[in-house]
Design brief:
The protein is α+β, with helices and mostly antiparallel strands and 690 residues long. The protein has 4 domains: 56-196, Serine Threonine Protein Phosphatase 5, Tetratricopeptide repeat; 207-298, Immunoglobulins (Immunoglobulin-like, Sandwich), CATH 2.60.40; 369-525, Nucleoside Triphosphate Pyrophosphohydrolase, CATH 3.90.79; 535-591 and 605-680, no CATH class. 37% of the residues lie in helices and 19% in strands. It has 20 helices and 24 strands. The strands form 5 sheets. Strands 9, 10, 11, 12, 13, 14 and 15 form a 7-stranded mixed beta sheet that branches. The protein is extended, with a radius of gyration of 36 Å. Pfam families: fn3 (PF00041). One of its GO terms (biological process) is regulation of establishment of bipolar cell polarity.
């Protein structure tokens, strides 16, 4: 029976995908010859299986081969093959944590042969050690048994090969002998690796920080020593006593992708001591105390007891808007729409006629005036009209007011796309006697409603930070929206952007392009801006640089092109929280008149923040092209920490008060390198909110 099983296994191995070759092709056939593992694995023809509908059996057989291939790659110390299999299959498909016939897992073989790269790759994938090894004695006994059984099998096969005459059976015995000799050497190497290993050294760079008013976070690195066995888990312990007697709690970390742990549910204002120890197959190593040795859960707001600035603001604004709507419900401007639900058929009919009215269609060409265009894109495609043009509707053909004021008002309206009808009804009263500004804004609302009706969608997206102008007096207000689902639109269709750019015939000269031509030429830049402005920062504490410049009608703020919704910045650390002690130190530093404050005491959170700030300031000054000696008069904004959702926080670095905002005509000797732009302050604030 065993001979037939081995032949079947050999047939299955012959059909495996190409992989690393073993020292002997027969080696893999006899990996489970200890007598503990039996599997009904009969040879099969793939076509007949498909014909009989046994696809599930085929899939399981293939996964079984993948599991065997992983064991083989680990035993042969083939790191590339191991990484390939871990990438190609899930841990469940590989049976990554199911012991084989010898009671071993791939991770056991890797750590007992002291192959650190493969062991780390397996640990990253979620591999565990065999549950059979409950103690050092049980592991040692298990390895001794494997070595003894393999040696006995080698001796038996050697005697059979020596005593039998050369024939087919003898050739088969020789193959078995070579396979068992290879396995005997593997087990001896594993046993020697276990015997020579020692417990791991203590972890390094154990750093403790305050994560919130009720939690602390500890981060650490692997032990420096390379002579001990691979570390497979870590233990974090915490206590209110520096001697850890009594201990308050502990946590075992066996997912080693990120070496950090957050201890939650702590008492604010209480000091907690933390230590970390490492584990390998020889047991737990010595603990390493954190630096600083303790941390006190707190938040910078506890320094003066201030409440979050934005607490309840969104709810208050919603309540205020609701009150305004309630007051306007009985306004005369809403009388025409009170009976609207009763005349639904008439309104639908009227809206259909409205679509075919000449003044309701998308524009093909521009004449002097103010226009609205909506760019909808999906992957490399863009929505265009049936005339292969980006949708454009007219706002005002006699526009003569202040553009920036109206444009900024339009950007605020873009936060209320669903309320356009209500806003229109609120400004229809006494329209004939309205000022130029009110008339223009009413026309903007009409144009928005027209664009929404023609496209069949209300959300027109985000407003681009500046209008597109030309020398003919045309002005385009541009909105951008990425479509991520299969959404249907009216009166438009999808075309590739490159096709639109190459097929459109320009009606202007290269020296004086029209606003539409300029828009089409720069559409990729606008799409890139829109995508980048929606990116979020990873959690952490950042140092931001506030630099403004003023013009006649606006103030603009310097931002990076890659993240135009955020100030120029560098990351200080991954922990966004500023503790009370750190904030108290920052307050003292801000009040010192000397240009260079005294460094805080060593092995404190304040000292660690001081070092992090030094590094961050140098990096930020290099980023914005300001010589470091010019930053000696810069200062940290000490009124508050800017908090964004609890996961991202900012400290602001400010130039001297006279240089925070550059006036028109004022020379700025330190111009940032490429990769920056200036946004109108109101546009930046809206982007930050989004």
């Amino acid at each position: 029976k065993m001979t037939q099983q081995m032949r079947d296994l050999q047939l299955a191995q012959a059909r495996k995908p190409p992989g690393p070759s073993s020292p002997n092709a027969a080696k893999r056939l006899y990996r489970n010859l200890s007598g503990k593992f039996r599997v009904n694995y009969t040879s099969f023809d793939e076509g007949s299986l498909a014909g009989r509908g046994e696809k599930e059996k085929l899939r399981k057989s293939y996964l079984f081969q993948s599991n065997a291939a992983l064991f083989e790659a680990v035993e042969l110390q083939d790191l590339d093959r191991v990484q390939e299999l871990l990438k190609q299959y899930s841990p469940e498909e590989l049976d990554l944590n199911t012991p084989n016939s010898e009671g071993l897992l791939p991770l056991d073989i890797a750590i007992m042969t002291n192959n650190a790269p493969i062991a780390r790759a397996l640990l990253q994938a979620g591999a565990k050690e065999s549950p059979h090894f409950v103690s050092l004695e049980s592991r040692s006994l298990h390895l001794s048994t494997l070595v003894r059984e393999a040696e006995q099998r080698v001796n038996e096969l050697t005697a059979q090969v020596v005593n039998e005459a050369p024939n087919a059976d003898c050739s088969e015995k020789e193959k078995q002998l070579k396979a068992w000799e290879w396995r005997y050497r593997l087990y001896k190497r594993m046993k020697a690796g276990f015997e020579h290993a020692r417990v791991p050294d203590a972890p390094t760079n154990v750093h403790l920080s305050v994560a919130s008013s009720s939690s602390v976070q500890v981060t650490f690195w692997e032990p420096l020593s390379v002579n001990s066995a691979v570390v497979t888990k870590y233990k974090v312990e915490w206590s209110c006593s520096p001697t850890f007697s009594p201990p308050l709690g502990e946590a075992v970390i066996d997912k080693l992708k990120n070496l950090h742990f957050t201890i939650r549910g702590l008492v604010s204002g209480t000091a907690y001591y933390v230590q970390v120890s490492a584990y390998n197959m020889k047991g737990w190593g010595p603990p390493q105390a954190s630096v600083p040795p303790f941390a006190i859960p707190s938040n910078w707001r506890e320094y003066d007891g201030r409440a979050p600035r934005r607490r309840g603001q969104a709810e208050a604004l919603d309540h205020l808007l609701g009150q305004v709507k309630t007051v306007h419900q009985h306004c005369v401007c809403h009388e025409p729409c009170k009976n609207q639900p009763q005349s639904r058929k008439h309104s639908v009919s009227k809206s259909l006629k409205h679509l075919f009215h000449p003044s309701s269609k998308f524009l093909k060409t521009l004449k002097r005036g103010l226009y609205l265009t909506a760019i909808f894109y999906k992957d490399d495609n863009i929505l265009v009209t049936h005339e292969d043009q980006i949708p454009v509707v007219e706002i005002d053909d006699t526009y003569s007011c202040l553009l920036m004021q109206d444009f900024l008002w339009f950007t605020k309206v873009s936060c209320m796309w669903d309320e356009i009808l209500w806003l229109r009804q609120c400004v229809t009263v006494s329209q004939s006697s309205c000022s130029c500004i009110l008339q223009t804004r009413f026309k903007m609302l009409l144009a928005i409603s027209q664009m929404q009706g023609l496209l069949g969608i209300q959300d027109l997206g985000q407003v681009f930070f500046e209008p597109v102008k030309d020398k003919q007096g045309n002005i385009l207000i541009v909105t951008l929206k990425e479509v991520k689902t299969n959404q249907t639109f009216e009166s438009v269709r999808w075309v590739p952007i490159c096709k639109l750019q190459t097929s459109r015939k320009s009606v202007s000269s290269p020296e004086e392009p029209t606003a539409l031509d300029t828009l089409l030429i720069s559409v990729q830049d606008k799409l890139a801006y829109h995508q980048q402005s929606s990116h979020a920062l990873s959690p952490g504490l950042y140092l931001g640089y506030l630099k403004l410049c003023s013009a006649v009608d606006q103030i603009r703020v310097l931002v990076p092109e890659r993240l135009p919704n955020i100030l120029c910045h560098v990351k200080i650390r991954s922990n966004p929280n500023i503790s009370r002690e750190e904030w108290e130190w920052l307050q003292k530093m801000a009040s010192v008149e000397e240009p260079i404050p005294v460094e805080p005491e060593a092995e404190t959170s304040q000292n660690h923040l001081f070092q992090e700030l030094q590094v961050a300031i140098k990096e930020l000054m290099t980023l914005v092209n300001i010589p470091l000696q010019e930053a000696k008069d810069f200062r940290l904004y000490s009124q508050e920490v800017l908090d964004f959702g609890g996961q991202v926080s900012f400290l602001l670095l400010l130039p001297p008060s006279d240089d925070v905002c550059t006036a028109p005509g004022q020379n700025n000797p330190y111009t940032p390198r490429s990769g920056f732009l200036t946004l109108p302050l109101q546009i930046f604030e809206l982007g930050e909110e989004r």
